């Protein structure tokens, strides 16, 4: 197969794997690894060593450098401290316990030296958000468990990568040298990695903060800087580049007032492309005979990792926390290994094999065995276990509201008053700031980004309201969350007649969702009513005041938005809703300013009449019981 044909095949297969993972709602790592093994050792269509030749090694090195830099950009020290003691313990004490335990067991069971045993232990401490997030959406554990697992996956990615890089650097430094010389070489590598990484991170951060690059060059300049620093570090000290770019990303992640949203979005897209292609290439290089060479010791090691090492890490990390026995059991079971372990292990195996470590060829199949086993086994069993332990969240009825404008905030407060979970997302900082001041939970940024997927707390959220004026982004948000929830749980506002050309460009699946709050209700209309003083109000439907009476009473002075039945289930009014509010239900509606003023006037008049009537009764009592003079 020619180079061009191979690249085309890898590109097409990468997209198909990502698409199938999206459709099946499974971690993308599974189809990527399986397809790579099928087209490689299975069918023999793709032979990376023959196709890429001498450029395979630098291609994998540069790809892993970018992946590590992108991952380290998410490691903010304040987030480690800000997500509870259990998360802090898991990514510090837990990592150490896992690494040491797996290293010892690997050394005892496998035919590895202490170097490869320690490296394997470092590689498989990482879980990672790309495998955790799909599992959490399926399992729906209690919010405290979900938050622990989510933030462990996010933070442990760069922490585990840094640990693996440090172990690898020490192995390289110690090769063929005495212990003293090994520590000297390792110290030089650490010094250059941290010094150059810190300096490069600070310099690039300052350049981005001060606008030294035009907007359209920021992403490309950042990529060029990462690759340049990686090459420079390797030139100064052999194999120090991965450590340098990892430190570089961590430094930038923790710089104050440095906005990395655009960089992260670009790097996320690039990482998806690199990881997809890289995984297929690496899986295609696997020797299926290597799995049989692992034998029963690998099975025992896998069992120890799943059933002993992870529980040990969780139980030690949970000392001093409020977690109960059942919660520790669930945390002990959910720890699928992910992308960083696979990508970094393959690169290190390549480098170690070139350096003369013959056993390194077994490193990749062993890591892939751990990944496939943990992802498949835990994906199939985590939900039943959570259900048996009674640690699953009830069905999610809360709302993610895209838009934090005045109308969206009023609706969110009305829903919150009925104890329904809400989350406001917006790309407008002023809207977000105002919502925060009103004590509403918010997310600042694009809710379809990978950052949002990793950071938004979607506990209790099961429906989406599109209440923003962003005509280009609204369909993207709606279509994105149709993959999370059933399409009938996505609601949007129709466009005005003036937006007919833009509306015609929308997909049919999105146009079908533009039915929110009834015919003729647009964002412009709601925003205008809110500006004029319209307010949210809840009205009870009774035997003496039916929904028909409600409609006759308010007419066009109220826009019914939600109906709450006797079970406290929320129903959304749309142009084609089928429910009919009954006695015992409640109607949540936006009441116009005129109606509010009229109600206030009626209320004031009634209060005045009641006050006058009360005064008259008091006077009548005085007249009927006059006081005697002199007493």
Automatic annotation (TrEMBL):
<protein>
    <submittedName>
        <fullName>Sodium:proton exchanger</fullName>
    </submittedName>
</protein>
<feature type="transmembrane region" description="Helical">
    <location>
        <begin position="148"/>
        <end position="171"/>
    </location>
</feature>
<keyword id="KW-0812">Transmembrane</keyword>
<dbReference type="GO" id="GO:0006813">
    <property type="term" value="P:potassium ion transport"/>
</dbReference>
<feature type="transmembrane region" description="Helical">
    <location>
        <begin position="294"/>
        <end position="318"/>
    </location>
</feature>
<feature type="domain" description="Cation/H+ exchanger transmembrane">
    <location>
        <begin position="13"/>
        <end position="386"/>
    </location>
</feature>
<feature type="transmembrane region" description="Helical">
    <location>
        <begin position="216"/>
        <end position="235"/>
    </location>
</feature>
<keyword id="KW-0406">Ion transport</keyword>
<keyword id="KW-0050">Antiport</keyword>
<feature type="transmembrane region" description="Helical">
    <location>
        <begin position="330"/>
        <end position="350"/>
    </location>
</feature>
<feature type="transmembrane region" description="Helical">
    <location>
        <begin position="183"/>
        <end position="204"/>
    </location>
</feature>
<keyword id="KW-0472">Membrane</keyword>
<dbReference type="InterPro" id="IPR003148">
    <property type="entry name" value="RCK_N"/>
</dbReference>
<dbReference type="Pfam" id="PF00999">
    <property type="entry name" value="Na_H_Exchanger"/>
</dbReference>
<feature type="region of interest" description="Disordered">
    <location>
        <begin position="602"/>
        <end position="631"/>
    </location>
</feature>
<keyword id="KW-1133">Transmembrane helix</keyword>
<feature type="transmembrane region" description="Helical">
    <location>
        <begin position="116"/>
        <end position="136"/>
    </location>
</feature>
<dbReference type="InterPro" id="IPR036291">
    <property type="entry name" value="NAD(P)-bd_dom_sf"/>
</dbReference>
<dbReference type="GO" id="GO:1902600">
    <property type="term" value="P:proton transmembrane transport"/>
</dbReference>
<feature type="transmembrane region" description="Helical">
    <location>
        <begin position="362"/>
        <end position="382"/>
    </location>
</feature>
<dbReference type="InterPro" id="IPR038770">
    <property type="entry name" value="Na+/solute_symporter_sf"/>
</dbReference>
<feature type="transmembrane region" description="Helical">
    <location>
        <begin position="270"/>
        <end position="288"/>
    </location>
</feature>
<feature type="transmembrane region" description="Helical">
    <location>
        <begin position="55"/>
        <end position="75"/>
    </location>
</feature>
<feature type="transmembrane region" description="Helical">
    <location>
        <begin position="87"/>
        <end position="110"/>
    </location>
</feature>
<dbReference type="GO" id="GO:0005886">
    <property type="term" value="C:plasma membrane"/>
</dbReference>
<feature type="domain" description="RCK N-terminal">
    <location>
        <begin position="399"/>
        <end position="480"/>
    </location>
</feature>
<dbReference type="InterPro" id="IPR006153">
    <property type="entry name" value="Cation/H_exchanger_TM"/>
</dbReference>
<dbReference type="Pfam" id="PF02254">
    <property type="entry name" value="TrkA_N"/>
</dbReference>
<keyword id="KW-0813">Transport</keyword>
<dbReference type="GO" id="GO:0015297">
    <property type="term" value="F:antiporter activity"/>
</dbReference>
<keyword id="KW-1003">Cell membrane</keyword>
């Amino acid at each position: 197969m020619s180079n061009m044909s191979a690249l085309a095949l890898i590109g097409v297969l990468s997209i198909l794997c990502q698409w199938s993972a999206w459709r099946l709602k499974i971690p993308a790592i599974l189809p990527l690894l399986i397809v790579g093994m099928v087209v490689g050792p299975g069918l023999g269509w793709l032979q990376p060593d023959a196709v890429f030749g001498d450029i395979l090694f630098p291609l994998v090195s540069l790809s892993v450098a970018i992946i590590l830099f992108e991952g380290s950009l998410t490691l903010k020290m304040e987030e480690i401290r800000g997500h509870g003691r259990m998360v802090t313990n898991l990514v510090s004490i837990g990592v150490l316990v896992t690494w040491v335990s797996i290293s010892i067991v690997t050394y005892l069971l496998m035919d590895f030296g202490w170097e490869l045993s320690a490296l394997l232990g470092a590689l498989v401490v990482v879980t990672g958000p790309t495998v955790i997030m799909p599992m959490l959406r399926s399992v729906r554990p209690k919010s405290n468990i979900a938050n622990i697992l989510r933030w462990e996956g996010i933070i442990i990615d760069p922490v585990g990568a840094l640990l693996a890089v440090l172990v690898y650097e020490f192995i390289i430094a110690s090769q063929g040298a005495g212990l003293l010389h090994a520590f000297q070489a390792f110290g030089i590598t650490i010094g250059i990695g941290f010094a150059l990484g810190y300096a490069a991170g600070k310099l690039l951060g300052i350049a981005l903060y001060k606008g030294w690059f035009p907007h359209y060059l920021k992403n490309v300049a950042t990529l060029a800087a990462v690759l340049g620093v990686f090459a420079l570090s390797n030139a100064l000290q052999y194999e120090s580049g991965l450590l340098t770019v990892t430190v570089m990303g961590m430094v930038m992640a923790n710089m104050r007032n440095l906005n990395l949203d655009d960089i992260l979005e670009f790097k996320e897209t690039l990482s998806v492309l690199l990881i997809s292609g890289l995984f297929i290439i690496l899986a295609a290089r696997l020797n299926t005979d290597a799995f049989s060479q692992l034998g029963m010791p690998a099975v025992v090691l896998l069992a120890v990792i799943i059933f002993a090492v992870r529980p040990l890490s969780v139980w030690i990390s949970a000392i001093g926390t409020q977690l109960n026995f059942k919660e520790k059991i669930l945390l002990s079971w959910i720890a699928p290994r992910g992308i960083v372990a696979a990508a970094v292990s393959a690169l290190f195996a390549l480098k170690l094999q070139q350096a003369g470590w013959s056993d390194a060829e077994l490193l990749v199949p062993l890591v892939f065995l751990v990944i496939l086993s943990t992802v498949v086994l835990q994906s199939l069993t985590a939900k039943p276990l959570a259900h048996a332990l009674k640690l699953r969240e009830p069905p999610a009825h809360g709302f993610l509201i895209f838009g934090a404008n005045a109308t969206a905030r009023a609706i969110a407060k009305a829903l919150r008053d009925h104890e329904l979970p809400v989350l406001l997302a917006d790309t407008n900082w002023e809207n977000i700031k105002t919502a925060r001041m009103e004590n509403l939970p918010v997310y600042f940024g694009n809710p379809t980004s990978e950052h949002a997927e990793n950071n938004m707390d979607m506990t209790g959220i099961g429906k989406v309201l599109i209440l923003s004026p962003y005509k280009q982004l609204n369909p993207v948000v709606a279509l994105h969350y149709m993959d999370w929830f059933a399409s009938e749980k996505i609601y949007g506002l129709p466009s005005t007649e003036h937006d007919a050309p833009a509306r015609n460009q929308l997909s049919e699946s999105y146009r079908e969702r533009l039915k929110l709050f009834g015919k003729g209700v647009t964002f412009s209309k709601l925003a205008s009513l809110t500006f004029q003083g319209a307010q949210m109000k809840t009205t009870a439907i009774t035997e003496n005041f039916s929904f028909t009476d409600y409609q006759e009473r308010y007419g066009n002075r109220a826009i019914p938005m939600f109906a709450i039945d006797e079970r406290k289930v929320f129903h959304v009014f749309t142009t084609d809703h089928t429910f009919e509010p009954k006695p015992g239900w409640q109607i949540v509606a936006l009441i116009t300013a005129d109606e509010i003023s009229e109600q206030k006037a009626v209320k004031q008049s009634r209060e005045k009449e009641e006050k006058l009537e009360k005064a008259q009764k008091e006077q009548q009592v005085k007249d009927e019981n006059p006081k005697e003079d002199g007493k």
